[in-house]
Write a structure and sequence with these properties.
The complex is a heterodimer of chains A (about 350) and B (about 550).
Chain A (H helix, E strand, L loop, with lengths): L2 H10 L1 H18 L4 H6 L5 H10 L6 H15 L12 H36 L4 H15 L2 H15 L11 H6 L9 H8 L2 H38 L2 H9 L3 H31 L1 H6 L5 H10 L3 H29 L6
Helix pairs in contact in A: 2-16, 6-7, 6-11, 6-13, 6-16, 7-11, 8-11, 10-11, 11-13, 13-16, 15-16
Chain B lengths: L12 H22 L15 E9 L14 H10 L4 E4 L2 E4 L2 E6 L5 E6 L13 H14 L10 E8 L2 E6 L6 H4 L11 H6 L8 H5 L8 E7 L3 E6 L11 E10 L3 H10 L4 E2 L8 H5 L4 E16 L9 H10 L2 H8 L4 E2 L23 H10 L7 E8 L3 H16 L2 E8 L1 H8 L10 E6 L7 H8 L13 H10 L5 H18 L2 E14 L2 E2 L17 E2 L4
Parallel strand pairs in B: 1-10, 1-11, 14-15, 14-16
Antiparallel strand pairs in B: 2-3, 4-5, 5-7, 6-7, 8-9, 9-10, 12-16, 12-17, 13-17, 18-19
The chains are: A mainly alpha (about 350), B alpha+beta (about 550).
């Protein structure tokens, strides 16, 4: 079917999906044990103080009333409410924390995809060779090693023993103070590059290296294996043998022709992995003090900060939906057969 | 082999791409090396004294920068250096700060403070009695955690421009100590609040992320989740007579304990404000360039027992459990010997500490015989316990307790949960819904036994997880907070503690020590147990060896 029609059809499913997600999360989070009013009041507060805060936050109203009020504000004013914990609009919090996660995950996915495709192709073309065994071992290792453990290990080895890279953070503390980053997108690498803030750019690059490598290592196996398997299948097809018999070099046959046909499953897995990482990197974020959505979501859950919990979940759901759509759209460009 | 069908282009696509990649990589690498790590700074005017930048760290983002709203330790790291209270504790002495002197009326109901003159807020406005009254009224109106210290105060009135009086509802002697608590009455600039007030919110939105106080450091900026920057208040009322001081302070947020040790060892951070736990201490102690100092802390770790529900409502069971716990073994294993068994809830160093208070010892045989005499057979009693997830020492406590209780025939089932969830369960108005056992770390933040005794053992208090309500104890505590003679008070608290011990409402596991780690070029670091997990930086300075 035509591309615009397809896109439109997909987009119409977004709204009901988001409504469903929001209702589910709203009711589940209100059932969890804990009392956000007591958390805000603090350890020494009296019961009267806690009760007063509960009324102030509207937590004493029946659940469906709270939900309706929330949805009304969301749909009419795009207002996700105010975070109980940070006192700021949830939208501001999300705008603060989302770019950090996006930056980290994107950089690590770029590394994963490049290395993964390279290793996967080399494994497929020289099946059971040295490279094949090496890359499969590497991929399994990445899958088996817990990311936070690897992160801590690399911190000790690379940051401390060798002293090459910094231990944690997005940027050096003193650099951030002396050369503040003008906020355009919230992505440090982009913002510093665009404004010519070279000191901060250099510091950001050094700081993103380790967490990105650790993250990409954990995703490597997914990409490598898929590329290898699909490429192996494709390489046995008739047209590949035909191309080879024409005298085209192996490199052209593989990278220009065969890979294109093998890439679709890889695209799917990359898309899935990407959206998973956007939501699930809080362990790496904690180890490397990367102030991203994972950490924010985690502390929202611990403190039962309902508006934040809902905001974070909605953002994740939306990102996932958009990413799935983009992956599906990419099929259009890669595989002409889909366009019919 | 097949040369006839060679590609017609001058260079193949692959070659073109490779060349492009090489060019890009060389360009990036070249840029990297071409940009010098630091541009030469413009020559500064010669400073009269030496001020340096300190990079310190705490374990989480501040909850809020508003001193009337929060008392969490990571927020206090900033608040205590930017705002000030009327009095302040130096060691165990209550010293003047914003108040030069004070009087207590004979009937102990009126506290009058004479304020320091010539003090300015960071926005230039003058500090005076009106500012104190404004701050007090705001604190009480907001009614958050810091306000709980002053519930005994009826009102606050301005006597003259530099004299302020607090009228109490009833006699409550500990209130004097509360004026010295850093997480109590911090004085804020009334003009700043009034200028940024929206409706009648008392500027809570603005004050959440802005600070205007009288302290030695001014707030500069807060990059959420990353760091807070402060700079020296040149016009600080105590002045800067010292030769060396801090010009700028960056408080970085480093969440993981192992990472904090790493950044300190690497030198990326100069001072760790948070206590270093026992298992990390050895690696820091042997590291050259790092100073690790141990201080007595006022933190008492306990395991509360739910006295309102079977089977722990039977005091004999509670006593048996108190004899079953391996006090020394736990201290050696968990705190690596760096703690002591307390005599009740009043820590060593505080009024009312009394080593004549009888305490339980590790005696499993006695525990078993108590249970036997009470008619319980091994396996009769099953207890459930809740503890805070993510903290190693809590897990270790549960493991040891499990073994200790199994040895006397009690079965234990434990569940980890987040701290807010634990608090909610133990504050449940229905005692049958509370867990049988729960961990708790009680900390004193002002130097009066009432800080702990009242908030933990009086009925209806939020920290009274165990459900204590002993009429005799309540009467003694009430009396103890209404008389002024220190010796008489100490005797009363001691008496109350002895009665409480008989009741065995909780396992008093240990009183800990705090270890503060910093680089060896940092000086002037002092830890006060009333200010746990944060450090005042006015006297801190850096002197690097050449």
């Amino acid at each position: 079917m035509k591309l615009p029609v397809y896109v439109l059809k997909r987009l119409t499913t977004v709204i009901p999906m988001l409504l469903g997600v929001s209702a589910l999360v709203f009711f589940i989070s209100h059932v969890l044990p804990g009392d956000p009013a007591a958390m805000i009041a603090g350890t020494g507060a009296t019961y009267e103080q806690i009760a007063a805060i509960r009324i102030e936050l509207g937590l004493d109203k029946p659940l469906y009333e709270q939900y309706l009020a929330y949805m009304r504000r969301l749909i009419l004013e795009f207002d996700l409410g105010r975070s109980i914990y940070s006192h700021r609009p949830v939208v501001s919090d999300l705008l603060d924390y989302l770019p950090a996660t996006f930056e980290l995950v994107t950089v690590s996915m770029i590394v994963t995809v490049s290395v993964g495709i390279l290793l996967g192709s080399m494994s497929a073309t020289r099946k059971d060779g040295v490279v094949d065994h090496f890359s499969r071992t590497l991929a399994s290792a990445g899958l088996a090693m817990p990311a936070f453990w690897l992160g801590l290990l690399l911190q000790i080895l690379i940051a401390h023993r060798l002293g090459i890279l910094p231990v944690t953070g997005r940027i050096d503390a003193t650099v951030l103070m002396k050369y503040p980053i003008t906020r355009i997108t919230g992505i440090y690498l982009l913002d510093t590059l665009v404004t010519g803030n070279w000191i901060a750019f250099r510091s950001s690059v050094l700081h993103i290296a380790m967490p990105a490598i650790v993250l990409s290592f954990s995703s490597l196996s997914h990409v490598t294996r898929f590329v290898r398997t699909s490429l192996l299948e494709v390489l046995n097809d008739d047209y590949v043998r035909a191309l080879k018999s024409y005298g085209l070099s192996e490199r052209i046959v593989v990278y220009k022709h065969a890979l294109r046909n093998a890439i679709i499953p890889t695209l799917t897995i990359v898309g899935l992995r990407y959206s998973y990482l956007l939501g699930g990197v809080f362990v790496i974020e904690k180890v490397f003090d990367w102030p991203g959505l994972g950490l924010y979501g985690l502390s929202s859950f611990i403190y039962l900060d309902f508006p934040s919990i809902l905001g974070v979940t909605l953002v994740f759901a939306l990102l996932r939906i958009i990413l799935n759509l983009l992956v599906d759209l990419s099929y259009f460009f890669v595989d002409p057969r889909v366009r019919v | 082999m097949n040369k006839t069908l060679k590609n017609r282009r001058a260079i193949s696509r692959i070659q073109a791409v490779s060349v492009l990649v090489v060019i890009v990589v060389v360009a990036l690498v070249g840029t990297y090396f071409a940009i010098p790590p630091q541009p030469p700074p413009p020559p500064p005017p010669p400073p009269p004294k030496v001020g340096e930048t300190l990079v310190t760290m705490t374990y989480d983002d501040p909850t809020s920068l508003d001193p009337h709203v929060t008392d969490t330790k990571q927020s206090m790291a900033i608040i205590a250096n930017v705002y000030e209270t009327l009095l302040i504790y130096e060691g165990t002495e209550l010293k003047p700060l914003l108040a030069e002197s004070y009087d207590v009326s004979a009937d102990l109901l009126v506290y009058t403070f004479r304020l320091r003159k010539g003090v300015k807020f960071h926005d230039g406005t003058a500090f005076n009695a009106q500012a104190v009254k404004f701050s007090f009224d705001r604190l009480m109106k907001l009614g958050k955690a810091p306000a709980a210290l002053f519930t005994a105060v009826k009102s606050c009135r301005v006597v003259d421009e530099y004299t302020i009086a607090f009228d109490l509802k009833t006699r409550y002697v500990p209130v004097l100590s509360c004026f010295g608590a850093s997480q109590g009455l911090n004085v804020v600039s009334p003009k700043a609040v009034q200028d940024h007030q929206v409706g009648d919110d008392l500027a809570t939105k603005w004050m959440h992320e802005n600070m205007v106080g009288t302290g030695p450091f001014k707030f500069v900026e807060w990059t959420r989740g990353v760091q807070v920057v402060m700079q020296r208040n040149v016009e600080y009322h105590k002045g800067w007579p010292q030769e060396r001081f801090l010009d700028k302070v960056i408080v970085k947020i480093v969440r993981d304990e192992a990472t904090r040790a790493l950044v300190l060892r690497k030198g990326e951070v100069d001072l760790n404000m948070r206590d270093t736990s026992p298992e990390i201490c050895p690696e820091l102690e042997i590291e050259p360039g790092i100073v690790l100092r141990k201080f007595l802390s006022f933190n008492i770790f306990v395991v509360c027992m739910n006295m309102l529900n079977k089977p722990l409502s039977d005091v004999r069971v509670r006593r048996a459990i108190s004899y079953a716990w391996d006090y020394k073994g736990a201290i050696d294993r968990i705190m690596l010997g760096r703690a002591t068994q307390p005599y009740g809830i009043i820590p060593k160093g505080m009024l009312g500490y009394d080593e004549s208070i009888p305490r339980y010892s590790y005696d499993p045989e006695k525990a078993k015989s108590i249970l036997k005499d009470a008619g319980y057979k091994p396996g009769d009693i099953k207890l459930n316990m809740i503890y805070v997830s993510g903290l190693l020492y809590q897990r270790q406590v549960v493991e040891i307790l499990d073994a200790n209780l199994a040895a006397i025939g009690i079965k234990l089932e434990a569940r980890a949960m987040t701290y807010p969830a634990l608090v909610k369960i133990m504050q449940d108005p229905d005692p049958t819904k509370r867990a049988d056992l729960a961990t708790a770390y009680h900390m004193a933040f002002y130097l009066d036994p009432a800080c702990l005794m009242d908030s933990i053992f009086l009925p209806g208090m939020p920290l009274n997880f165990q459900g204590s309500d002993n009429k005799e104890v309540n009467a003694i505590l009430d009396r103890a907070s209404s008389i002024s003679d220190a010796n008489e008070r100490a005797a009363l608290y001691s008496k109350a503690m002895k009665i409480i011990m008989e009741d065995a409402p909780m396992l008093f596991c240990w009183q800990g020590t705090t270890a503060i780690a910093y680089r060896d070029y940092v000086y002037g670091v002092e830890y006060n147990p009333l200010r746990h997990n944060y450090i005042l930086l006015y006297n801190v300075y850096i002197m690097r060896k050449k």
